[in-house]
Design goal:
This protein has eight helices and seven strands; from the N terminus they run βαβαβαβαβααβααβ. It is an alpha/beta fold. The protein has a single domain, classed as NAD(P)-binding Rossmann-like Domain (Rossmann fold, 3-Layer(aba) Sandwich). A seven-stranded parallel β-sheet has the order 3-2-1-4-5-6-7, sandwiched between helices. Helix 1 packs parallel to helix 2, helix 1 packs across helix 8 and helix 3 runs parallel beside helix 4.
Length: 253
């Protein structure tokens, strides 16, 4: 197992769908203890999900309900990881929402709310976790972005702005933290079978798949190995400030 004895904090987890559940599952399978922050899942469902991971993989998995875009709640999340395990090795920022709006119709509250979910939660979790990583001279930060932050998208100006901001933030902290043994990278998803695609129009899905170089949508189990690579020692040691693009050829930067 590549991550035996490591401690991973997944910000934006779930027991129901997509990367939100695939990430804690993949990291537990590689031997990492995990703290999973979640917001909307039912407490009893999260407890059952994390208990199942513990039983399957022999690690400790701690669910923690919070709004990670709130300063006090983000601080409490990181404190829980430290109080439980004594250290943090890997931080994954996966919080995300999306709702389509034309720019001329978008309410300001929608704009602010989406940026808070994506950017505030990432900033706060990084700010709170990085001092512990600096002390141990080791850390892996993985931010889950989107190809929309690279190529843009219709009715997604708020989402594209947030994801482009995530990529820029990651490059900056990579330069700032390299001397402390901490790497920071992004995974910019392309069309992937997650909850965000559930409500997409069937005709759009058909047309989108047809225009992809690999003419299908990705699966979450095809994305998680990239995160494992970036978190692993020595596999991910010399990647930092990079954006990885699992997108079936939709974007070739």
């Amino acid at each position: 197992m590549k991550l035996q004895g490591k401690v991973t904090v997944v910000v934006g987890g779930s027991c129901h769908h997509g990367l939100s559940s695939a990430l804690p599952m993949a990291f537990a399978a590689e031997g990492s203890n995990v703290v999973v922050s979640y917001l909307h899942s039912k407490k009893e469902d999260m407890e059952a999900f994390t208990k199942d991971l513990e039983d399957k993989y022999g690690v400790k998995v701690v669910p923690f309900q919070c709004d990670a875009s709130k300063e006090d709640e983000s601080k409490a999340l990181i404190k829980t990881a430290i109080d439980t395990f004594g250290h943090i090795d890997i931080l994954i920022n996966n919080s995300g929402i999306s709702k389509e709006y034309n720019i001329w119709e978008m309410p300001f509250d929608v704009w602010k709310g989406l940026l808070a979910v994506h950017l505030d939660s990432m900033f706060l979790s990084c700010r709170n976790a990085i001092p512990y990583m600096m002390k141990q001279k080791f850390g892996r930060i993985i931010n889950i972005a989107s190809q929309i932050g690279v190529k843009g998208g219709v009715q997604l100006s708020h989402y594209g702005c947030a994801k482009a901001g995530m990529i820029g933030f990651t490059k900056c902290i990579a330069r700032e933290l390299g001397a402390y043994g901490i790497t920071a990278n992004c995974i910019a998803l392309g069309p992937t079978n997650t909850k965000m695609l559930d409500n997409a129009d069937a005709e759009w899905k058909k047309n989108k798949q047809a225009e992809l170089v690999i003419p299908r949508f990705g699966e979450t189990y095809e994305v998680t190995p990239t995160a494992i690579l970036l978190a692993s020692d020595p596999d991910g040691n010399i990647y930092t400030g990079q954006t990885f693009h699992p997108n079936c050829g939709d974007v070739m930067p």
